[in-house]
Write a structure and sequence with these properties.
The complex is a heterodimer of chains A (238) and B (394). Chain A is mostly helical. Chain A has helices at residues 5-8, 12-15, 22-34, 38-41, 50-54, 56-60, 65-73, 77-86, 106-119, 123-128, 133-142, 161-168, 170-175, 193-205, 217-233. Classes of the chains: A mainly alpha (238), B alpha/beta (394).
Chain lengths: 238, 394
């Protein structure tokens, strides 16, 4: 059995993502640590594994919230980079790992690592969000994340024939709802136009919209155009 | 598969001592920020019910005049969840505001894709809180993730002056102030607080209905000190919402070993990696419940949990797995107890797992009920009305 280091660790040409310099990895980790929430999320690690026992993703993936906390606590720049390219998108973000007796929040650290991966256009972010564009479009442009018209047979074949029944009867069934705000089919509820304008101002003024420019330029352009057009109609200078 | 000896484990934790020192008093921080003019606090100004929380702080729940912060997943895919909340509130005679000036908390997307940041998430939360404040109605949060996320946002705004400054600048562009409510309240807390009033309006006997409860992660794991824990429910070892209501309605609550496990929703997984979601939901939750408790219905109190546990069973059934149990929110369960129509109010035809055996045990003729609903739909198709209204529900 080959036990040399090159046999144990993934080489860049088989890892599925580009290797970068140590300095670049350190810069990415510095971005993680610079987040205002980081110090609230990490206090060290007892290495007890309680977070792993509570973690749903650890049961089905080669994933461990303990390794995330340990790598961050030890400032293991190489491992942090590997985790940002391989591990972080497996997390379920349920925050069961908050059971940590040390008060760590590995799920929170992962949230920050995902943001940094996204802002820097890492391969893992592009891959993880490859099939996710329509959801980002929906939430950013309409203010509600999922809509009744998403329930299509082709999109959710594993959810049973009821999904098709909903799709076939969508308009009629929505009109049968007694709440006046729920007669919509393309949004969860009827969001006021003025509310959307305010939401667009939030996305534009906090840099949230720009976060997707590195992973999906087309989607970014579409959303930017929608938002700027709406704001211009309202006489708001962008 | 060997199961965990629940009774033996529980007996080791027979007593529950509360430690208020473990919980930082955010309300004092809010008052200080309010006094300094940094934030505007929306206060409860109607009758309230006091409930116990995990570390002993008493939480107040306003009964009426509530601003319903709706859930995109409930409204979009499980609309009977939302309509049941409204219907129960109307039946008890409490007024409310169902706003159009509301966005999603956007946290489902944030936990799924990270395409946002702390400032944007806080600004979305504060915008909604400011919108509620403008109406004078106090916010009631329908979604467990919104509730958990907003508690995190509150913590971050209190802890970080630079974040407050960023959000205040954004709010100024919107012509709004930095508003936070004195309490962040989940709808399941309202149902728990009002459980005796709800039971007093009960018209259907549920004593032969066995339920299992899935407590929602984002309700009690995020900022856990705000969640309701009652020494009389599970000895104070688990959150009391849902279970407290089910017991007040006379249902039999049965235990199972994997109650702490999440449902498998995963935020991004339920949308683009459902093999994980289906596997976790069926292997770790539904099958464990079926084997250990054999319930008539699984009750839970969050958008993602109802979706995951309900929708994941179809594929597993095709593989002859031990699944096949109704999944409802406790709001729908309470509405049924109070006599709500299973289709017009509870909208059970949007659900996938078979709920009909449960309805039959409740004494509900679901075929007749479906025929009644079809008649209402025909009225819409004939153009007699454009929409069904609340007056059509009874």
């Amino acid at each position: 059995m080959d036990t040399t280091a090159s046999a144990i660790y993934k080489r860049p040409n088989v890892a599925g993502y580009a290797d970068v310099s140590y300095e670049e990895k350190a810069r990415l980790f510095d971005e993680v640590k610079a987040d205002i929430r980081y110090n609230d999320y990490l206090y060290g690690c007892y290495e007890c594994g309680i977070c792993v026992a509570a973690c749903p993703s650890a049961k089905f993936y080669d994933f461990s919230p303990r390794r995330i906390a340990q790598a961050a606590a030890r400032e293991d720049v190489e491992l942090i980079y590997q985790q940002m390219q391989e591990d972080i998108w497996e997390c379920s973000q349920c925050f069961s790992c908050l059971r940590c007796p040390r008060g760590n929040n590995p799920g929170g650290v992962i949230t920050i690592m995902r943001e940094v991966a996204l802002n820097n256009g890492l391969a893992s972010a592009k891959e993880a969000l490859g099939g996710y564009s329509r959801i980002i479009y929906k939430i950013m442009s309409t203010g509600t994340q999922v809509s009744p018209d998403m329930l299509q047979r082709d999109a959710f074949p594993d959810w049973g024939p009821e999904t098709g029944d909903v799709s076939d009867n969508l308009d009629l069934w929505r009109r049968a709802l007694p709440s006046e705000t729920l007669h919509t089919t393309s949004t969860g509820w009827d969001v006021a136009e003025s509310t959307l304008v305010e939401l667009y101002l939030i996305w534009l003024n906090t840099g949230a919209l720009n976060m997707i420019s590195e992973i999906d330029r087309g989607l970014h352009s579409i959303l930017q155009e929608i938002m700027e057009e709406r704001l211009e109609d309202e006489g708001i200078e962008v | 598969m060997a199961t965990i000896p629940i009774e033996a484990l529980k007996s080791k934790k027979a007593s529950f001592t509360r430690d208020p020192e473990r919980y930082h008093d955010f309300q004092q921080d809010l008052e200080e920020l309010g006094a300094a003019g940094e934030i505007v606090i929306q206060r409860m100004d109607h009758d309230t019910v006091e409930v116990p929380t995990r570390y002993g702080r008493t939480k107040r729940i306003q009964k009426a005049h509530l601003w319903h912060h709706k859930s995109c997943g409930q409204c979009g895919h499980i609309p009977g969840y939302s309509t049941s909340i409204f219907w129960v509130m109307r039946k008890l005679g409490y007024d409310y505001n169902d706003p159009r000036d509301q966005t999603s908390c956007t946290a489902w997307n944030y936990y799924a894709s990270a395409t946002s940041n702390a400032a944007a998430q806080a600004a979305v939360a504060v915008r909604n809180f400011a919108a509620a404040h403008e109406t004078g109605y106090f916010p009631l949060i329908h979604c467990g993730t919104s509730y958990g996320h907003y508690k995190e946002v509150r913590h971050e705004l209190i802890a970080h002056p630079e974040l407050r400054a960023d959000v205040r600048k954004v709010m100024a562009k919107l012509g709004k102030q930095l508003v936070l409510p004195e309490e962040i309240i989940h709808y399941s807390e309202w149902f728990y607080a009002l459980r005796d009033e709800i039971a007093a309006h009960q018209v259907r006997d549920l004593s032969n209905i066995a339920v299992t409860v899935h407590p929602a992660c984002h309700y009690y794991k995020l900022v856990e000190g705000d969640a309701i824990y009652d020494p009389d429910v599970y000895g104070g070892q688990r959150t009391a919402v849902v279970t407290g209501l089910a017991e007040a309605l006379g249902a039999e609550v049965r235990d199972y070993s994997t109650w702490f496990d999440c449902c498998g929703f995963g935020f991004r997984h339920i949308l683009v990696q459902r093999d994980f979601t289906r596997s976790f939901a069926t292997l770790r939750k539904i099958e464990r419940m079926k084997e250990e408790a054999d319930p008539d219905v699984v009750l839970t109190h969050d958008t993602g949990c109802v979706t995951t546990l309900d929708k994941s069973q179809f594929a597993a059934q095709a593989h002859d797995r031990n699944v096949g149990v109704a999944v409802l929110s406790e709001a729908q369960f309470a509405a049924l107890a109070m006599g709500a129509h299973p289709y017009k109010v509870c909208q059970l035809h949007w659900h996938s797992a078979n709920y009909k055996p449960m309805l039959e045990k409740m004494g509900i003729d679901h075929e007749a009920a479906w025929a009644e609903f079809q008649e209402e739909l025909k009225r819409l198709e004939r153009g007699e009305k454009k929409y069904l209204e609340w007056e059509d529900m009874d």
